[in-house]
Write a structure and sequence with these properties.
The protein is mainly α. The protein has 14 helices and 3 strands.
């Protein structure tokens, strides 16, 4: 009985309720998306099954303490790299390898479906960098520009290992997620702005130069850096989708029409009239906007704000540096996913094929996010063990 009371106190019920609300939105949106008849498969029970798998993953992850994940971090990172390496070297003709939308990013597991290893690698990467930063600070108790630069080099090398494999798939969306996670962890790690600011300015200048060359020097980029024509088309269709309405700009135009036609209160559940391809996965937000209008779309965004706020509160409660860095990386990952996915459906950002966390259909995305959220549950659960038990040994 005492153990049950301790569990009730330590379990993060607020986070569980938020996830259940995402489950409800996901099932409703996917159910409505299927009215377009794009596929002959009912994705609703499949999504529910993936949520059950996610719940099992969270329960399993929550059992172990943060110190155990700290010890396993580099092993998990190595396992994730192994998955990426094997995927890269396997020939495409094999049944085990699957290519979608021009990217060789998936394993095909018979009886399970498509599994994207980069979704799991994101969390493994967060664990590895969190341990790297915490160990670095333990070694260098007195900070200086030199020690900050050493830390930056370590993080950069750790980033480049998975990034090389993911960019060669090619998977631009996942690559950007890794970069966003790295940027957030560098800031949270306390690296001096005397080092960060020049890098940010240089990165912004390089990004602006690449965008300019994509518009006016395509031949140079193709010959020098190996860029492909379809990558330029994504930029053009983002800036002027109506000039590419029959091909690259089609997804964006239909998404904008769907969201705009929902107006304030939407057309009601399954009241959709605008055809949007891939509307159960990457463009699920267009379904929400058309069905429930500005009100429903705003509610969904507010729910994400609530999730990020809750995760931030949890991070601020934690005293262990490793746990703090892990939670910060997870916050950065989820925030970037949400910002990029919603941004690409309303022309704020280019289309990159990033799913909307906890709402878009997909087993890899849900399991990857469950793995990350399970770590938050674990850290909150075992933190409360220390707080309520009054016994340091329990921690």
């Amino acid at each position: 009985m005492e153990n049950n009371r301790q569990f009730m106190k330590r379990f993060d019920w607020a986070l569980a309720v938020i996830l259940l609300m995402f489950l409800a939105i996901s099932l409703l949106a996917i159910s409505s998306a299927q009215t377009s008849g794009q596929y002959g498969i009912n994705f609703v029970p499949r999504q529910l099954q993936w949520y059950v798998v996610g719940a099992i993953i969270i329960s399993f992850i929550m059992y172990f303490e943060p110190d155990q994940y700290k010890k396993m971090s580099w092993y998990l990172f190595g396992f994730g790299i192994l998955l990426l390496v094997v995927l890269a070297v396997l020939p495409e003709g094999m049944d085990l390898v699957e290519r979608k939308n021009g990217a060789k990013s998936w394993y095909h597991i018979p009886g399970v479906g498509s599994i994207q290893p980069s979704e799991f690698m994101k969390t493994f990467f967060i664990l590895a960098v969190a341990r790297l930063i915490s160990k670095h600070h333990e070694k260098y108790l007195i900070k200086s520009l030199k020690t900050d630069f050493i830390l930056l080099v370590k993080i950069g090398i750790t980033l480049m290992v998975p990034l090389i494999f993911i960019m060669t798939q090619p998977d631009l969306g996942s690559s950007l997620v890794f970069i966003a996670i790295t940027a957030a962890l560098i800031i949270v790690a306390g690296v001096s702005w005397k080092i960060i600011l020049p890098i940010l300015v240089s990165g912004a200048a390089a990004g602006g130069a690449l965008l300019w060359m994509a518009l006016y020097m395509q031949d140079f980029l193709e010959k020098t850096f190996g860029f492909k024509a379809y990558q330029f088309a994504r930029i053009y269709s983002w800036l002027d989708p109506y000039s590419y309405s029959s091909n690259e700009g089609y997804h964006l135009i239909t998404s904008l029409n769907a969201i705009g036609s929902g107006e304030i209160f939407g057309k009601g559940f399954k009241g959709r009239e605008v055809y949007v391809s891939e509307n159960h996965t990457d463009f699920i937000f267009a379904v929400i906007g058309e069905d429930w209008g500005f009100v429903g779309a705003s509610f969904t965004i507010c729910l994400y704000f609530l999730l990020i706020y809750h995760l931030t509160k949890t991070t601020l409660l934690l005293k262990d540096p490793f746990s703090t860095y892990v939670c910060a990386g997870i916050i950065a990952m989820i925030t970037f996913h949400v910002f990029e996915n919603i941004g690409m459906t309303i022309q704020l950002l280019p289309i990159t094929g990033i799913p909307l966390p906890f709402i878009s259909y997909g087993g890899s995305s849900l399991m990857g996010n469950a793995l990350a959220i399970g770590l938050v549950f674990s850290m909150r659960f075992h933190y409360k063990t220390y707080m309520f038990s009054g016994n340091d040994d329990d921690e």
